């Protein structure tokens, strides 16, 4: 009856009134408290199961628990009853999802435990259960034996029996629930401990104090483990455990825990240091981890802010760990303040403000400051007449903000705390407020951090502790100023970016002696360089063809001051870092120019001395800790090479000239050419456009001076290495067996030889310097036909050397002739090419002495072209497995080597003949011309073997033929007239190349259509085909005397042959590759010119080109024009030159509209207009807001 009556009251009476009801039931019945207690305890599982987990259903079980707690006080000291109460009633209630119920249950449970003085019983039941649930959820080991690592030692799991029946029935809690229970229990225990201590009770419960300390130990182990786990565990630790744990740490200075005979200690300082170490490891990870670290620090400072900072900071005692004196803490804050993520910046700024409010002390007011001269400030006082409307508005806004100008208000930064206020104001303005407020605050407040500095030597900042060094030393002030500058450089509003950059560059750094060295190197090489790359700072760049701006000038001044006090090795490292920025970031036109000027400004200092590779490393070891990478001269030249290479992305020659000029200045200032390996030096020079370093080029004198500089410190000599280059280049590789090579190898040798010939003629053109080179070439040429295995690379390298040298001399000769014409027209005398002409004649004489040997060698080697039967050989893996890229010869490697030797021998002989005919008589070249002509006919009349190898060999023969025909077409007809006439089919006919051309076209078209060659190889053959046709057709215009010869001899090609070539052109033009475009269009012009020549000589009235033929030509040309790379000027020029030929343009039929339609030229003109109009419409659509 008593149990039923009491249970009926649980639904009607609130839990607070239950004790009175229980007393009434006991007084009105004969049931003892013990009987009633056990009856209620037995009935609780049934009542608990019937009540809902959410809503107001928790009132009944809570009243039930309150009744049991009240009865417990009537039982006396009964720990067994309390243990049963904890397992049977409180634990099931704690497992519910209702947070309000959980807090009420914990309060009720703590009251019951406290009233019975049985806190150790809580540590034997609920606490081990929660801690074990956390450990199992994180898969942490649970040990009952002490090891060296105390991170897994939990006090409440040391002697706890996991096999308890109650534990088995309850199972395990989820991690979030277990941590929430632990945090709530620790919070209630701390509250009761504070109440006990506040009453100064002498009989304070020792078990409560022990529980707080032991639980603090266990929770600290859990928190450190959770922070080292994934984000889910860190989030659980920061939301639930960390804050009450930090509060506990503030109350308990140290915790001593015994594990058997082992005694472990947890100190406040050690735990905070462990927390900071966890944050450090998180900072180095991603965005989410950084935010978690800031959450941890936020909880840390919130605990300090809540009034217990005296306990953590230890004002009256020395602390082993003090976060404000940890330099890495301030470094991480600065990194967070400039992070790209706005949420990270906000968290970092919050941490900074709350830490300043805690760490700042009254000692700052005693710091004295020394004023700087107003002339050194970035903004000067202006008269009222000089103030613009915008500045007046900014002054008005500044007064409303309370940040008036210093010269008017007389305020100064008198302490570090004042400087912090200025910094916080400026940062908040940059992050949160409008542009006009930013301008007002920046203009009037940024000077405060420059106007006053702490008294004493600013270099003695090492004596400061980390916190005071932030705003009490010049270096610290500049570290925080870089945060403001970087935020300003990255601001969303371009006006703010311009304001901040201009204020930075306007500072008279020369008046702040040594201050530039206080600016962090990372800021200079990172945010500053990226900020200078912003186009908004270079609005005047390129105007009127002047590739400069005020920003570039300001940056040049700053970097000049920045590098002025540096040691040579440190300056070398700085220039290397600056130049390497071109590799890491993408620079625009203005940004790349700014970078080039900054590099040259740092390098070109008056006290700069050349630094060899060895001395650079030695001197670098003496520098301070800012430099961590040893940089030598070769590394610097590689970086400058990248900077010069990047300028090729911009096509304006004036722009590229200025960039390359700054690069050469930097290289010549810091590097000795004699200290750089020749190969690397040649690679660097090759990146400079040759028009800048060739004869009469603007950079030629500077490069020559750099190359031939004489310094006794250097044993090497660049000129001597260039002279000795052929010897080292020709050395055999020493490979055992046949010396095989392919097109890639030959291409690399050719590029290397071209770089050498360019550098050689750049340094010198004196005959005495070439004497050794010419003697070496004569020696190699005389031994060319001696017993050497076929395919040996020595012969190919010999031909490459001669070809590259002739090619470079031809370029120089054209420059001299052009300049001579200009000077002659101006009335001056030209004498600069005398040495060059003497060198040309000397080279021609040497080549003539070995030309016969070259011809003999070529006759022997060219036999590979006529092979009829070849063994089936596997292709190289590089050919079979190749996907994309340049087309490769589908030949075995051994045959490829022999083919390349033949091609280069014919190419070299053709080049030598073309070169020597200008400096010697025709008789000496007769045998060479005869050989070339015989080779030409043999290739043209050769029939292809119906195999892929035979087709590839024929293709290679056409490749060699292209070089031969180019040499023959440039020579006078009279030189090979005797060779042509015996080949005529009809001896009575006039001089004609009809049979030559028709045979050539028939055989090469057959090779193109027989299907033996792959598609990529047919494209290569098509390119050689039109180069050969171009050479055949241009025989009348390449030599001045050929035109008069042809008038005497008659037409070189018949009209039918020319028209067939024209039709072949129109059929091939539409699908022509990019490499064939120019040669095909040149053939069009040559055909039209020869038809006009035949018409004039034959007194014909028609050119022979019909309307349909011309229409097909313009349609194919238009398709080609649309598919051609528009960046290439040559194809467009060749197209216009071919279509708008003088023999076609005057013909009205090509313009007028008739029954067939519009004329071809009119059609092409209309298509061009339509294309331009469509492009304009597309641009307007792109600009449309729709």
TrEMBL record:
Superkingdom of the organism of origin: Eukaryota
Protein name: Uncharacterized protein
Listed InterPro entries: ARM-type_fold (IPR016024), TRM3/TARBP1 (IPR045330)
SUPFAM superfamilies, per database record: ARM repeat (SSF48371)
